[in-house]
Design goal:
The protein is α+β, with helices and mostly antiparallel strands. Helices cover 17% and strands 39% of the residues.
Length: 268
Amino acid sequence: MNRLGRLTSLIGASALLLAVAAPVSAADDAMVRVLHASPDAPAVDVKVDGANVLTNVPFKTISDYLMVPGGTYNIKVCATGTDTCVIDANLTFEAGTKYTVAATNVLASITAQVITDEPTPTADKTQARVVHFSADTPAVDVLTQDGSAKVVENLAYPNATGYLTLDPGSYDLKVCATADNTVCPLDPPALDLAAGTAYSVFAVGSLQGQTLDAVVAVDGVAAPATDTVALPEAGSSGVSLAALAALGLFGITALAMVFRLSSRRVEK
């Protein structure tokens, strides 16, 4: 291969590396996750426009976020491996927005709940919200374990609180369902909330069926400050974007030099 061919290949490889390493914009996509919160429903398949996107999802399971182009989709929730679908709804998801779609209530009255997830975590704080998805549980208060502080008050199905901004750490809370807060049917383990992370705590299940439980999910993580992202150390196999950019710039400069030399030879 001649010198020009070799340099052209180098530039092509550099451009490919830069394209792979560059972050992909999600401005045209929505992010959607699914929660199985129906206490007596079997494991389910979730279909989008007729195609399975999640299979064999059991009660109390929440999926990761799935990226989909903004638009309206037919969502079906069906007993696993069957065409028996207990939810069949057309839902619209806006680009650039996060959603949780939950199958709630008992199977005979199963309902799709759609809430928007809008976390805004910062590096030095944590965020948490509480979502009431237990259809037969009355409005609840969320208190500290000793009852000295009320974190959430009078939260009713199927509502969610806003995000509470807190100091990171371990929180031992209980969920109480009576006016005097003497009956507390949900006492989850202590929640370890990390800095830079936003969480949702979903109350799911049935009070009467004694299946009330909490499902904790991560809604978002704060992006690291750009001036704190370390470049690979000497000997590391990692390649920085700065290095890739320099490689691309070198290739373009070299190609320009070859064109100038070639022009001179033609002129002679």
